[in-house]
Design goal:
Elements lengths: L4 E7 L3 H15 L2 E7 L1 H10 L7 E5 L3 H8 L3 E10 L1 E6 L19 E3 L9 H9 L3 H6 L1 E4 L7 H6 L4 E5 H4 L8 E5 L2 H4 L3 H6 L1 E7 L5 H13 L1 H9 L2 E3 L5 H5 L22
Parallel strand pairs: 1-2, 1-3, 6-7, 6-8
Antiparallel strand pairs: 3-10, 4-10, 4-11, 5-8, 5-9
Helix pairs in contact: 1-11, 2-3, 10-11
């Protein structure tokens, strides 16, 4: 008899980290994972209205809108908070413009990169952040590199062609960027003052009603939420894991449905991985 197959869908922003965790889980659980990483909205709409095949676990952006939408469509059994994305300022490693805080991105002469046409959160959330910081006008005036995706300007930051950008920290942890940029934190009260940022920062892990491997799916979610391996990997890739001490502080600012925070987390049919 062959190895069981687990079908996992996930927000594309989680792909790099989840591929590492999927390999670990495949070894320990002696299973095969069929993984798809894409935009949460596209996957959620497909799952709600069109797709009828096997999906066991969906790890999606938001811990309110998307999971509640899928629950209403009777495609989601339950969901739990998994991790959160945080926003930071990145500069070239030498920091030629001497950026010390987000306020400096409005300083005359500072060259900034921005993706105004990128999908949320990379566009609207950034605008919420600079508005909360009181620098929106100066920030937009300083934009010298405009793209439709923040990944497209990361090389310009590394090479020093621009002085700074606001990104999700996960982008600063990509293999071709990590260690080549300086990362400057943004105070949470600024980063999450806006509505979009509060909603879009959390990620949740959900058990899908189309599952054909319910016990294995529960074990996988338990691995993501409870294992030290998952915590370390997610933090290495720039996320705040649900078991990270920092998550207590983040929860105060994020939009998270109560059911994503309470109740038993996959105790039945599960052994610790």
């Amino acid at each position: 008899m062959g190895r069981p197959t687990l079908v996992v869908w996930a927000c594309g922003g989680l792909s790099e980290a989840l591929r590492v965790l999927n390999e670990e889980f495949e070894r320990s659980a002696r299973c095969r994972i069929l993984f798809t990483g894409a935009a949460t909205g596209y996957l959620a709409d497909s799952l709600a209205h069109r797709y009828r095949g096997q999906v066991d676990v969906f790890v999606m952006r938001t811990a309110t809108q998307r999971p509640l939408y899928l629950k209403k469509a009777k495609k989601l059994a339950w969901f739990k908070l998994f991790c959160a994305s945080e926003y930071v300022v990145i500069t070239p490693k030498s920091n030629p413009a001497r950026i010390r805080s987000i306020k400096d991105l409005a300083r005359p002469g500072v060259k900034v990169a921005f993706s105004p046409k990128a999908a949320t959160p990379e566009s609207k959330c950034i605008l919420e952040i600079v508005e909360a910081a009181g620098i929106k006008g100066g920030f937009l005036k300083n934009v010298v590199k405009s793209t439709d995706c923040p990944r497209k300007f990361l090389g310009d930051v590394v090479a020093g062609r621009v002085h700074a950008a606001i990104v999700e920290k996960r982008l600063a942890c990509l293999p071709h960027v990590k260690g080549k940029v300086k990362v400057i934190p943004i105070p949470l009260e600024i980063a999450f003052k806006g509505k979009k940022c509060k909603i879009k920062s959390p990620f949740s892990a959900a058990l899908i009603t189309l599952t054909k491997q319910p016990q294995l799916a529960k074990r996988y979610i338990h691995f993501l939420l409870r294992s030290e391996t998952a915590r370390k990997v997610m933090e290495e890739y720039g996320f705040v894991h649900v078991k990270s001490p920092r998550m207590r502080q983040f929860k105060r600012y994020l939009a998270i449905a109560k059911e994503a925070l309470v109740g038993e987390v996959v105790r039945e049919f599960v052994r610790t991985v």
